Every structure is written in structure tokens, then in C-alpha cells.
Amino acid sequence: MVHEYSFALIIAAVLDAFAAALHIGVVIVGPRWYRLFGAGERFARAAEAGSMYPAAVTFVIAMVLFAWAIYALSGATVIGPLPFLRPVLAATTLVYLLRGIAGPFLLVGTGHSRQFVIISSAICLVFGVAHLLGLAQMWGRLA
After folding, report:
1. Gap between the Cα atoms of 103 and 77, Å rounded
2. Could you read off the pLDDT of 34-62 as tens digits, one per residue?
3. What is the tens place of the pLDDT at every residue in 63-72?
4. Residue 109's pLDDT band (cuts 50, 70, 90)
5. DSSP states of the chain as a string?
6. Terminal-to-terminal C-alpha distance of the chain
7. Pair 87, 70: CB distance under 8 Å
8. How far apart are CA 135 and CA 75, in angstroms?
9. Cβ 26 vs Cβ 98: under 8 Å
10. What confidence score (pLDDT) does residue 58 get?
11. Which of 32, 74, 91, 97 has the most CB atoms around its CB within 10 Å?
12. 3-state DSSP assignment of residue 40
């Protein structure tokens, strides 16, 4: 029997892990990267002032993204099946697609730059499509 992997979910996992690593990088580099990646001036100033809040929020986001990468690898059958695999992958896909589609409308006036909102929404849409393609491919095989 030939083992079938989901290339789309492998790509999704790589994208998730890369995004997680970037978030960790933002925490390490600090205010300059908060500004560079469009987190908002409020976050950058809070980090400059020594507040742990921006780092904590960014770190939690990174951990969620890493978890999503692991679940995508599980869905791709690169690693063994994880609990609640189908619902977690479906929820991940939904979050990315909603963020990608609704982000430009929901993030207006939140302190993020217009450029950040558009670029991050486009990125989330690409991530969501990768997850959706892999999820559709593997749906019948997922527990």
C-alpha cells in the first residue's frame, strides 16, 4: 500500500511554522519589529516601555501557530493522528479564511496600518486556502 501525503497540508504546516517563527522573532527583536510587521504603534511603545503585554500576546499567537503547524502535519499524515484532528483543522481553516476575508473590514480603526491590514489579510487568505485544499483532500481519512 502506498502512503498518501497531503502536499497542501504540508505547505500549510510550513507556512504556519514560518509565521510562528516570525512572531517569536518579533518578541526577540522587540519594538523595531513590532513596527516593521505592523503590530501598531501602541504595541511598539508598550514594548519600549518594558511592558510584557506585547511579548505575551505575540508569544501566545506564535504557540497557536505552532500548534496549527503540528495539526497540519498530522492531517497530512506526516505524523500520527492527533486528537480532534478534523475539527481542529476545520477551525484553523475557518479562522484563516475569515481573517483573510473579513480582516480588511474588521481591523479598520484598530491602530494597525492600512498596509498591515491588507498584507496580513492576503497572507491569511493564502494560508486558509492551503489549509482548505489539504482539508478537502484528506477529509475522508481524518479521524
Report:
1. 31
2. 999 888 888 899 999 999 999 999 999 99
3. 999 999 999 9
4. confident
5. ------HHHHHHHHHHHHHHHHHHHHHHH-HHHHHHTT--HHHHHHHHTT-SHHHHHHHHHHHHHHHHHHHHHHHTTSSPPPTTHHHHHHHHHHHHHHHHHHHHHHTTTSS--HHHHHHHHHHHHHHHHHHHHHHHHHGGG--
6. 20
7. no
8. 8
9. no
10. 96
11. 74
12. coil
Say how far apart CA 62 and CA 64 lie, in whole Å: 5
User: What are the residue boundaries of the structural domains of the chain, listed by start?
Assistant: 7-141
| Sequence-separated (6 or more) residues with CB below 8 Å from residue 18 | none
Question: Which amino acid, residue 104?
Answer: P
Please indicate, yes or no, whether the overall pTM of this predicted structure exceeds 0.90: yes
In the block, cell 504603534 appears at 41
Tell me the one-letter amino acid at 15.
L
Whole-angstrom distance, CA of residue 140 vs CA of residue 119: 33
Task: Using the structure block, give the residue that is written with the C-alpha cell 484528506.
Answer: 138
